[in-house]
Amino acid sequence: MFLKKIIVWLTVVLFVLSAFKYADSRESEIYKAVYPRRMDITDVLTVNGTVRENNRKDVYSETTLCIDSVYVKEGDMVSQGDILAAVSKTEGISIAIPSEYIVNAVLRGGVGEAVYCNAEDGYIRSPMDGTIMNVNCRQGEKAGVIVPLFSVSDLGDLKISAQINEDSIHKIKEGMSADIYTNIKDSAPVKGEIVSISPYAVRAASLLTVKENPAKAEVLFDIIDRTENILPGYSVTMKLITDTKENALTIPYEYIQQNDKNEQFVYVLGENGIPETRIIETGYELENVCEVRNGIKESDLLLMCNTAENKAVNIRVKNANE
Question: Pairing relation of β-strands 281-285 and 275-279?
Fold first, then answer.
């Protein structure tokens, strides 16, 4: 009999404890939470650019020529005065260069300084020290004056051309340093700097969309650290630090929400466990965090919740700083 009473009392106690536990589980909520953190932040402007030759000469003929021999190929190193081809003059009407060379010139560009030769001694010579970039002639063919026969470039003198939106131009100035990144896997960035900024911006027209394109200004970068990973025509990315702010108050992006008035806000743990809505003013944006200039303090505990109900709840904060 005594044992039965003990069993009954234990059953009652367990039932009561279970009821309290169930009620607690219904009233309690576990929120992910974090405190704002002080850190030094930088405003980084990222732009894309194209490597181009800064010292290139395109060799044209003044008259139609017959190409007797070609002594160089693309990629060869030459010195000023080296013979590039042996030629002889032809009589009559000028004959255009074959169409494949015209296409080659359009795609790869005759973008250098035009140099004209008369080949009076029967040879075309290099106008400078450099690398042969284009060869637009073949032995036994006739070549006219439409496109350059040869292009020679100094690959030690390259520039990077970038188009920067008008709303970002005010952030940069000549002499500002930049980190240059190539698309080559595992390649380290190299240093560069701004050498010129166009005094005007151009708005590109588009036939594919009615949306107005932003106006852009051309910015030229010098490459301080020479590397074989940067060659003419390559696409590169530049990162420029335009501003630095010390001891800024920051919070993770995921805690920031937006109301129907386009105001940014966060939930803060208030008195008696009531989540409070705080309108905030944000500043610089980094990869995972954002600067907060007004609206919260360093001691405020932010809550990751999706409710606007202003009622007290039994909140248990777990790993608040993670």
Answer: unpaired
